[in-house]
Amino acid sequence: MSAKPSFFAELQRRHVYQVGAAYAVAAWLLTQVVTQVLPVFDVSILGQRILVLILIAGFPVVLLLAWLFDITPQGIVRTEELPADGEAPAAIRDRRSMDRKLNYVLGAMLLLSLGIMAMTMLPGVHRRLALSSESRIEKSIAVLPLTNESGDKEQQYFSDGLSEDLITALSQFGGLKVIGRSSSFQFRDSKDDVRTIGQKLGVANLLEGSVRKVGDTVRISAALISVADGSTLWSQHYDRNYADLFKLQDEITNAVAKVLKTRLLGDAELASKQSDRPRSGNLAAYNAYLQGRFFFGRFNEEDMHTSIDLLRAAVRLDPDYAQAYVGLSRSLALLANDYIGGAEAQPMFAEARAAADRALALDPHLGSAHGALAWRLWAVDFNWPAAEAE
Questions:
Q1: What is the CATH number of the domain that holds 192?
Q2: Is residue 273 situated within a structural domain?
Q3: Domain that residue 85 falls in
Q4: HSE-CB of 107 using CA atoms within 13 angstroms
Q5: Per residue in 374-389, is it b (16+ CB within 10 Å) or e — as a string?
Q6: Of 29, 16, 13, which Cα lies nearest the Cα of 59?
Q7: Poorest-pLDDT segment among 5-9, 63-67, 286-290, 293-297
Q8: How far is the CA of 103 from the CAs of 66, 90, 115, in angstroms?
Q9: Which residues make beta-bridge pairs with 239?
């Protein structure tokens, strides 16, 4: 009668060593992917840590499953105890076949791991990537949503609109990385300090501030903050009549531009061709447009109807307001496509087409109008070559 195998021999027979090694390598590879890819999609550090903790917690579970179960030609079965006289020939053949397969998998994963490690550790590649990343981050800014201090939640659209306009204006700089609205607005009311926010967004500068609109008076406080040490590079308070709103926006943008130009941008100049403002200076139309854009951003059927009503009001107040026609086209198309559908959606699609065409007729170089037309050609007309051209 053969002796009962030792505990360590039994671990080997049940493939626990190989499964554990394969899981460790796979978890390491997945961790590399998580830390490199997820930040691109603005996944928080907390989310990444949770995924890594799940991988760590899964290790003992995988070892337990390897001890309890075997993968055989008949499928996954409960691992049987050795018979008194040792393994049967068929069991030996099955075990050796499984050993070879696991070894192949483990070897391939180890080679892949070594390849990734070699790529990340090559001095020249690493240095170039680091220098490139450092340069990109240095010339970068995020506009955090301006805080609404009006005491009226219905005025949120106004402060959000000003924040978006500042993003648009700063985006006109050549060589300056400006974080988009969807990413920077995630930090509304955030308790994180400026360094943490800057690291998460991958920028060197933050523009933050507050807005208070009371009657015909607008009070804006703005500050440009360095992420590296939290120091204030520039700050200013403004009290203006609402009728001077466009002038006030220019003052803030130009002040920030001057600081950034001195520090980062050399001779870069701020362009003013692309703007959400009506060329007529019609503040009532601009106010309706900002509200329409605010309700559009809520992405539900009821608020989309509200957005359309407000944007229709904007173009009634100013029939030459190109950006308002763009917003109207987007709201109509999204409502028709996502919430209405069928024959009832066709009149909305027709109005969306007309609004986009009107915007392009008013301003053939307006990027957002070409974007609205491209969406229509792609999603409604299925004219993909024309959509790509737009």
A1: 3.40.50.10610
A2: no
A3: 7-121
A4: 6
A5: bbbbeebeeeeeebee
A6: 16
A7: 5-9
A8: 15, 20, 18
A9: 219
* Domain boundary pick from 64, 97, 121: 121
CB 227 within 8 A of CB 142: no
> Is the confidence at residue 4, as pLDDT, over 80?
no
Look up tokens 């040490």; give the residue.
229
Q: Is residue 278 part of a domain?
A: no
DSSP assignment letter at 145: P
Distance CA 329, CA 310 (A): 12
Does the predicted model carry a pTM greater than 0.85? no
Tally Cβ neighbours within 10 Å of residue 294: 21
Chain-centroid distance of CA 68 in Å reads: 43
Question: In terms of domains, do 30 and 114 share one?
Answer: yes
Same domain as 251, residue 349: no
Q: How many Å apart are CA 205 and CA 222, to the nearest integer?
A: 13
pLDDT tens-digit readout, 102-124? 556 656 655 665 565 555 444 44
The answer to whether residues 203 and 141 touch, using CB atoms and an 8 Å cutoff, is yes
CB atoms within 10 A of CB 56: 11
- Are residues 14 and 99 located together in one domain of the fold? yes
CA within 13 Å, CB half, 147: 10
Kindly state whether residue 275 falls inside one of the protein's structural domains. Answer: no
- CA 182 – CA 157 distance, rounded (Å): 15
Q: Are 192 and 154 spatial neighbours (Cβ–Cβ below 8 Å)?
A: no
Q: What angle do CA 59, 63, 64 make, to 5 degrees?
A: 115
Determine how β-strand 217-226 pairs with β-strand 177-178: unpaired
What is the number of structural domains in the chain?
3
Query: Which token pair is 299?
Result: 């992405």
H helix runs in the chain, sequence order: 7-13, 16-37, 45-68, 89-121, 123-138, 156-170, 181-184, 194-201, 245-260, 283-296, 301-317, 322-335, 342-362, 367-379, 384-389
Give the tens place of pLDDT for each residue, 291-320: 999 999 888 999 999 999 999 999 999 999
Distance between CA atoms of 335 and 356, rounded to whole angstroms?
Answer: 15
CB 349 within 8 A of CB 335: no
| Whole-number Å distance between alpha carbons of 307 and 326 | 12
Residue 179 lies in a domain: yes
Q: Is 323 in contact with 359 (CB distance < 8 Å)? A: yes
For residue 210, what is the enclosing H or E element? strand 205-214
Dihedral sign, Cα of residue 188, residue 189, residue 192, residue 198: positive
